[in-house]
Amino acid sequence: MTTKHAKYTKMLGFLSCISRVSWFLNMERNELIQQITKDVMQQLSKQPDAQEKPCCGNCAGQQPAIPPADLAQYIDHTLLKPDAIQADFDKLCDEAIKYKFKSVCVNSWRVAYVTKKLQRTGVAVCSVVGFPLGAMDMRAKAFETRQAIENGAKEIDMVINVDALKSGDLHTVEEDIRAVRRATTGTTILKVILETCLLKDQEKVLACEIAKKAGADFVKTSTGFSAGGATVEDIALMRRVVGPNLGVKASGGIRDYAKAAAMIQAGATRLGTSASVAIVTGASGSGTY
Fold first, then answer.
1. What is its EC class (predicted)?
2. What is the set of active-site residues?
3. How is the chain split into domains, by residue range?
4. Which of 145, 201, 244, 265 is the most exposed place for a label (fewest CB within 10 A)?
5. How far is the first Cα of the chain from the last one, in angstroms, to the nearest whole number?
6. In the 8-state DSSP scheme, what is residue 254?
7. Alpha-carbon distance 23 to 27, whole Å?
Protein backbone atom coordinates (compact mmCIF):
# COMPACT_ATOMS: atom_id res chain seq x y z
CA MET A 1 0.00 0.00 0.00
CA THR A 2 1.40 3.36 -0.97
CA THR A 3 1.84 6.11 1.56
CA LYS A 4 -0.78 8.15 -0.28
CA HIS A 5 -3.26 5.26 -0.21
CA ALA A 6 -2.61 4.62 3.49
CA LYS A 7 -3.29 8.25 4.28
CA TYR A 8 -6.49 8.08 2.23
CA THR A 9 -7.66 4.95 4.09
CA LYS A 10 -6.86 6.56 7.44
CA MET A 11 -8.82 9.66 6.42
CA LEU A 12 -11.83 7.52 5.50
CA GLY A 13 -11.69 5.85 8.90
CA PHE A 14 -11.47 9.22 10.64
CA LEU A 15 -14.46 10.55 8.67
CA SER A 16 -16.43 7.40 9.49
CA CYS A 17 -15.71 7.96 13.19
CA ILE A 18 -16.76 11.62 12.91
CA SER A 19 -19.97 10.52 11.18
CA ARG A 20 -20.83 8.11 14.00
CA VAL A 21 -20.17 10.76 16.65
CA SER A 22 -22.25 13.29 14.72
CA TRP A 23 -25.11 10.78 14.47
CA PHE A 24 -24.98 10.22 18.21
CA LEU A 25 -24.89 13.92 19.04
CA ASN A 26 -27.78 14.62 16.71
CA MET A 27 -30.11 11.89 17.95
CA GLU A 28 -33.68 13.04 17.99
CA ARG A 29 -34.32 14.96 21.20
CA ASN A 30 -37.73 13.32 21.30
CA GLU A 31 -36.15 9.85 21.44
CA LEU A 32 -33.94 10.87 24.35
CA ILE A 33 -36.83 12.42 26.27
CA GLN A 34 -39.02 9.38 25.56
CA GLN A 35 -36.32 7.12 27.02
CA ILE A 36 -35.95 9.35 30.08
CA THR A 37 -39.71 9.31 30.52
CA LYS A 38 -39.79 5.53 30.29
CA ASP A 39 -37.13 5.34 33.01
CA VAL A 40 -39.02 7.84 35.19
CA MET A 41 -42.29 5.94 34.82
CA GLN A 42 -40.54 2.71 35.82
CA GLN A 43 -39.08 4.37 38.90
CA LEU A 44 -42.42 5.90 39.87
CA SER A 45 -44.13 2.52 39.58
CA LYS A 46 -41.65 1.10 42.10
CA GLN A 47 -42.26 3.85 44.65
CA PRO A 48 -44.93 3.35 47.31
CA ASP A 49 -48.07 5.44 46.95
CA ALA A 50 -47.63 8.26 49.43
CA GLN A 51 -51.10 9.74 48.99
CA GLU A 52 -53.13 10.17 52.14
CA LYS A 53 -56.54 11.53 52.88
CA PRO A 54 -56.66 14.81 54.77
CA CYS A 55 -56.44 14.22 58.49
CA CYS A 56 -59.07 15.55 60.85
CA GLY A 57 -56.36 16.17 63.45
CA ASN A 58 -57.48 13.38 65.77
CA CYS A 59 -55.55 10.54 64.17
CA ALA A 60 -52.65 9.19 66.20
CA GLY A 61 -49.26 9.97 64.73
CA GLN A 62 -50.57 12.41 62.11
CA GLN A 63 -50.30 16.16 61.93
CA PRO A 64 -53.53 18.16 62.12
CA ALA A 65 -54.88 19.40 58.81
CA ILE A 66 -54.21 23.02 57.94
CA PRO A 67 -56.92 25.39 59.27
CA PRO A 68 -59.21 26.77 56.53
CA ALA A 69 -58.13 30.39 57.03
CA ASP A 70 -54.47 29.41 56.62
CA LEU A 71 -55.14 28.16 53.10
CA ALA A 72 -55.37 31.79 51.90
CA GLN A 73 -51.58 31.90 51.48
CA TYR A 74 -51.84 29.11 48.87
CA ILE A 75 -54.70 30.57 46.82
CA ASP A 76 -54.72 32.37 43.48
CA HIS A 77 -58.20 33.96 43.69
CA THR A 78 -59.41 33.45 40.14
CA LEU A 79 -61.86 35.07 37.73
CA LEU A 80 -61.56 33.95 34.11
CA LYS A 81 -65.18 33.83 32.96
CA PRO A 82 -65.69 35.54 29.58
CA ASP A 83 -68.90 37.23 30.79
CA ALA A 84 -67.33 38.79 33.91
CA ILE A 85 -67.79 42.56 34.14
CA GLN A 86 -65.90 45.30 35.95
CA ALA A 87 -67.98 44.99 39.13
CA ASP A 88 -66.95 41.33 39.34
CA PHE A 89 -63.28 42.32 39.30
CA ASP A 90 -63.91 44.93 41.97
CA LYS A 91 -65.37 42.19 44.14
CA LEU A 92 -62.49 39.85 43.32
CA CYS A 93 -59.94 42.41 44.49
CA ASP A 94 -61.89 43.33 47.62
CA GLU A 95 -62.08 39.65 48.62
CA ALA A 96 -58.37 39.12 47.90
CA ILE A 97 -57.48 42.04 50.17
CA LYS A 98 -59.87 40.97 52.93
CA TYR A 99 -58.76 37.33 53.07
CA LYS A 100 -55.10 37.97 52.11
CA PHE A 101 -55.01 35.61 49.15
CA LYS A 102 -51.65 35.03 47.46
CA SER A 103 -52.78 36.57 44.18
CA VAL A 104 -55.68 37.29 41.88
CA CYS A 105 -55.62 35.46 38.55
CA VAL A 106 -57.30 37.13 35.57
CA ASN A 107 -57.23 37.27 31.79
CA SER A 108 -54.54 39.57 30.42
CA TRP A 109 -57.02 42.25 29.37
CA ARG A 110 -57.90 42.93 33.03
CA VAL A 111 -54.33 42.95 34.41
CA ALA A 112 -53.91 46.73 34.34
CA TYR A 113 -57.23 47.29 36.11
CA VAL A 114 -56.67 44.85 38.97
CA THR A 115 -53.05 45.98 39.36
CA LYS A 116 -54.26 49.48 40.09
CA LYS A 117 -56.87 48.16 42.54
CA LEU A 118 -54.28 46.06 44.40
CA GLN A 119 -51.43 48.54 44.70
CA ARG A 120 -49.64 48.34 48.07
CA THR A 121 -51.92 45.55 49.35
CA GLY A 122 -49.44 42.67 49.19
CA VAL A 123 -51.72 40.74 46.79
CA ALA A 124 -49.91 39.80 43.56
CA VAL A 125 -51.43 39.88 40.08
CA CYS A 126 -51.34 36.74 37.94
CA SER A 127 -52.24 36.70 34.24
CA VAL A 128 -53.14 33.68 32.15
CA VAL A 129 -51.49 33.47 28.73
CA GLY A 130 -52.56 31.46 25.70
CA PHE A 131 -55.73 30.71 27.59
CA PRO A 132 -57.57 28.36 27.56
CA LEU A 133 -56.46 26.27 24.56
CA GLY A 134 -52.73 26.97 24.32
CA ALA A 135 -53.01 26.43 20.57
CA MET A 136 -51.78 29.79 19.29
CA ASP A 137 -48.39 30.72 17.87
CA MET A 138 -45.68 30.92 20.53
CA ARG A 139 -44.88 34.47 19.41
CA ALA A 140 -48.42 35.47 20.31
CA LYS A 141 -47.94 33.96 23.76
CA ALA A 142 -44.67 35.83 24.19
CA PHE A 143 -46.31 39.11 23.16
CA GLU A 144 -49.22 38.58 25.55
CA THR A 145 -46.73 37.82 28.32
CA ARG A 146 -44.76 41.00 27.76
CA GLN A 147 -47.92 43.10 27.70
CA ALA A 148 -49.25 41.50 30.90
CA ILE A 149 -45.97 42.15 32.72
CA GLU A 150 -45.86 45.72 31.44
CA ASN A 151 -49.37 46.18 32.86
CA GLY A 152 -48.40 44.85 36.29
CA ALA A 153 -48.50 41.04 36.28
CA LYS A 154 -46.00 39.40 38.62
CA GLU A 155 -47.00 35.84 37.71
CA ILE A 156 -47.82 34.20 34.37
CA ASP A 157 -49.91 31.03 33.95
CA MET A 158 -49.39 29.80 30.38
CA VAL A 159 -51.12 26.89 28.65
CA ILE A 160 -48.84 24.44 26.86
CA ASN A 161 -49.34 23.39 23.25
CA VAL A 162 -51.34 20.24 23.97
CA ASP A 163 -51.53 19.36 20.27
CA ALA A 164 -47.73 19.35 19.96
CA LEU A 165 -47.35 17.25 23.12
CA LYS A 166 -49.83 14.61 22.06
CA SER A 167 -48.38 14.57 18.54
CA GLY A 168 -44.93 13.84 19.95
CA ASP A 169 -43.48 17.17 18.83
CA LEU A 170 -41.63 17.73 22.09
CA HIS A 171 -39.25 20.28 20.62
CA THR A 172 -42.18 22.60 19.90
CA VAL A 173 -43.57 22.05 23.41
CA GLU A 174 -40.25 23.10 24.92
CA GLU A 175 -39.71 26.07 22.60
CA ASP A 176 -43.26 27.27 23.31
CA ILE A 177 -42.49 27.40 27.04
CA ARG A 178 -39.07 28.95 26.45
CA ALA A 179 -40.62 31.70 24.31
CA VAL A 180 -42.78 32.73 27.27
CA ARG A 181 -39.91 32.33 29.73
CA ARG A 182 -37.74 34.65 27.62
CA ALA A 183 -40.55 37.22 27.60
CA THR A 184 -40.65 37.37 31.41
CA THR A 185 -38.53 39.48 33.72
CA GLY A 186 -36.13 38.04 36.27
CA THR A 187 -38.64 38.05 39.11
CA THR A 188 -41.70 36.85 37.19
CA ILE A 189 -43.10 33.51 38.33
CA LEU A 190 -43.96 31.23 35.41
CA LYS A 191 -46.54 28.46 35.82
CA VAL A 192 -47.12 25.97 33.01
CA ILE A 193 -50.66 24.58 32.63
CA LEU A 194 -50.61 20.98 31.38
CA GLU A 195 -54.37 20.37 31.02
CA THR A 196 -53.98 16.99 32.68
CA CYS A 197 -57.52 15.80 31.89
CA LEU A 198 -56.46 15.51 28.24
CA LEU A 199 -53.21 13.64 28.92
CA LYS A 200 -52.11 10.09 29.64
CA ASP A 201 -49.80 9.61 32.61
CA GLN A 202 -46.75 9.29 30.36
CA GLU A 203 -47.66 12.59 28.68
CA LYS A 204 -48.04 14.25 32.09
CA VAL A 205 -44.56 13.06 33.01
CA LEU A 206 -43.17 14.33 29.71
CA ALA A 207 -44.85 17.72 30.16
CA CYS A 208 -43.47 18.08 33.69
CA GLU A 209 -39.96 17.19 32.55
CA ILE A 210 -40.09 19.63 29.64
CA ALA A 211 -41.53 22.47 31.75
CA LYS A 212 -38.79 21.98 34.33
CA LYS A 213 -36.10 21.89 31.63
CA ALA A 214 -37.48 25.05 30.00
CA GLY A 215 -37.22 27.07 33.21
CA ALA A 216 -40.75 27.03 34.63
CA ASP A 217 -41.28 27.79 38.32
CA PHE A 218 -44.49 25.74 38.61
CA VAL A 219 -46.38 23.03 36.80
CA LYS A 220 -50.16 23.39 36.96
CA THR A 221 -52.92 20.87 36.35
CA SER A 222 -55.72 22.56 34.49
CA THR A 223 -57.42 25.55 32.92
CA GLY A 224 -60.78 24.65 34.46
CA PHE A 225 -62.29 25.08 30.99
CA SER A 226 -61.77 21.57 29.62
CA ALA A 227 -63.09 18.09 30.41
CA GLY A 228 -61.85 17.95 34.00
CA GLY A 229 -59.85 19.63 36.75
CA ALA A 230 -57.29 18.79 39.39
CA THR A 231 -57.13 15.37 41.01
CA VAL A 232 -55.13 14.21 44.02
CA GLU A 233 -53.58 11.50 41.86
CA ASP A 234 -52.30 13.98 39.29
CA ILE A 235 -50.88 16.30 41.94
CA ALA A 236 -49.04 13.39 43.58
CA LEU A 237 -47.64 12.27 40.21
CA MET A 238 -46.54 15.77 39.25
CA ARG A 239 -44.86 16.31 42.62
CA ARG A 240 -42.96 13.05 42.33
CA VAL A 241 -41.76 13.93 38.82
CA VAL A 242 -40.63 17.54 39.43
CA GLY A 243 -39.18 16.93 42.88
CA PRO A 244 -39.27 19.19 45.93
CA ASN A 245 -37.98 22.46 44.44
CA LEU A 246 -40.54 23.20 41.71
CA GLY A 247 -44.00 24.48 42.54
CA VAL A 248 -47.13 22.45 41.78
CA LYS A 249 -50.44 24.24 41.32
CA ALA A 250 -53.80 22.48 41.55
CA SER A 251 -56.62 24.14 39.66
CA GLY A 252 -60.04 23.26 38.32
CA GLY A 253 -62.90 21.95 40.43
CA ILE A 254 -61.51 22.90 43.86
CA ARG A 255 -64.64 24.23 45.55
CA ASP A 256 -64.42 23.32 49.23
CA TYR A 257 -61.98 23.01 52.11
CA ALA A 258 -61.72 19.21 52.03
CA LYS A 259 -60.58 19.09 48.41
CA ALA A 260 -58.24 22.05 48.87
CA ALA A 261 -56.59 20.39 51.90
CA ALA A 262 -56.29 17.11 50.00
CA MET A 263 -54.41 18.87 47.20
CA ILE A 264 -51.96 20.42 49.66
CA GLN A 265 -51.36 17.05 51.29
CA ALA A 266 -50.74 15.46 47.88
CA GLY A 267 -48.01 17.99 47.12
CA ALA A 268 -49.61 21.18 45.80
CA THR A 269 -47.99 24.46 46.81
CA ARG A 270 -50.56 26.69 45.12
CA LEU A 271 -54.30 26.44 44.48
CA GLY A 272 -56.23 28.12 41.67
CA THR A 273 -59.91 28.54 42.42
CA SER A 274 -62.89 30.86 42.13
CA ALA A 275 -64.36 29.37 45.31
CA SER A 276 -61.59 30.89 47.46
CA VAL A 277 -63.86 32.57 50.00
CA ALA A 278 -65.89 29.41 50.51
CA ILE A 279 -62.69 27.40 51.05
CA VAL A 280 -61.19 29.69 53.70
CA THR A 281 -64.51 30.07 55.52
CA GLY A 282 -65.29 26.34 55.50
CA ALA A 283 -68.26 26.64 53.12
CA SER A 284 -68.75 25.09 49.67
CA GLY A 285 -68.49 27.03 46.43
CA SER A 286 -69.92 26.61 42.95
CA GLY A 287 -68.60 26.84 39.41
CA THR A 288 -66.04 24.83 37.44
CA TYR A 289 -62.86 26.69 38.42
1. lyase
2. 157, 220, 249
3. 73-281
4. 244
5. 78
6. -
7. 6
